[in-house]
């Protein structure tokens, strides 16, 4: 009996690992063993690359990179200076501003004709007597110099006389045949990257609306008005190639703008001749909080103007 018991005890394995392995399954092999390395799931870095897609496809430039590397484009495809000049001849058939036909009103002092809604200021009805356009009313220069701290702010914004001078400036710009690319907002469909390059879009139509007292973004200073007009030409120089049709038109109309300012408000000539850098807007807001900037809340344009204040 004792002998049989000793044989049974000797038959029991002293190392239970083999038995446990059979019960719980094989243990994972060591990575530095001679066996094949098991497949592992991607680590955090692999997951990050997979999620953000940095390992797939070409790098998409940011708006800032796009601006820094911009080589110039065309903000109004199809525009031609020669065609614009042919449409700009004064006659009794086409509106001096939009260059379209229809029911137009003739100025009694010049060959220009206007649609009631195109003239600046807009006309609600045909005048009962003679009609003289804003350009033919004569020069009425601004005498107050805002740049030297002169008193210039009316309770409701610009004074009547200041509004008339600004309207005169803007109407002359509208009437120039080369101003067509700057009269309306740049078309987002035809030029989809324009608003990625230009961070402060502006056009003559937006400026016209802001000259109206009923507009909640009505100008509070002449400098605010001039800032926006100048911004039109700054944007043109940034986006368009210098030798392009639109680029050359910008130079022509800006020269006209500066000549009008020199005649009607010479104290602002140095201001309108400045070419601000991209950081100019923030700096100008500190110097003159009433210069205008843009927002996306104005119904009259893809880019809506912010408050002047």
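Q: What amino acid sequence fits the structure above?
A:
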């Amino acid at each position: 009996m004792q002998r049989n018991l000793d044989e049974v005890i000797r038959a029991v394995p002293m190392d239970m690992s083999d038995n446990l392995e059979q019960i719980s399954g094989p243990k994972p092999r060591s990575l530095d063993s001679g066996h094949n390395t098991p497949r592992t799931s991607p680590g955090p870095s692999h997951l990050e690359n997979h999620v953000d897609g940095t390992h797939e496809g070409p790098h998409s430039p940011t708006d800032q990179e796009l601006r820094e590397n911009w080589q110039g484009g065309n903000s109004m495809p199809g525009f031609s200076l020669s065609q614009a000049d042919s449409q700009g001849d004064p006659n009794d058939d086409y509106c001096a501003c939009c260059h379209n036909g229809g029911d137009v009103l003739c100025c009694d002092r010049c060959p220009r004709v206007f649609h009631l809604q195109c003239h600046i200021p807009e006309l609600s009805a045909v005048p009962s007597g003679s009609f003289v356009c804003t350009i033919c009313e004569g020069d009425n220069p601004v005498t107050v110099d805002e740049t030297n701290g002169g008193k210039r702010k009316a309770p409701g914004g610009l004074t009547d006389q200041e509004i008339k001078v600004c309207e005169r400036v803007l109407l002359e710009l509208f009437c120039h045949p080369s101003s067509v690319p700057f009269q309306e907002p740049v078309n987002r469909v035809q030029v989809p990257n324009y608003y990625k390059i230009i961070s402060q879009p502006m056009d003559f139509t937006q400026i016209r609306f802001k000259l109206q007292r009923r507009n909640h973004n009505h100008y509070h200073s002449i400098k605010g008005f001039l800032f926006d007009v100048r911004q039109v030409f700054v944007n043109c120089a940034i986006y368009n190639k210098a030798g392009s049709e639109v680029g050359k038109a910008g130079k022509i109309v800006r020269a006209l703008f500066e000549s009008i300012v020199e005649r009607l408000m010479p104290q602002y000539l140095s201001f309108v001749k400045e070419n601000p850098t991209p950081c100019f807007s923030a700096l100008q807001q500190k110097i003159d909080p009433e210069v205008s900037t843009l927002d996306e809340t104005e119904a009259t344009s893809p880019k809506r103007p912010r408050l002047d204040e």
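Q: And what stands out in the fold?
A: Residues 71 and 211 are 34 Å apart (CA to CA).
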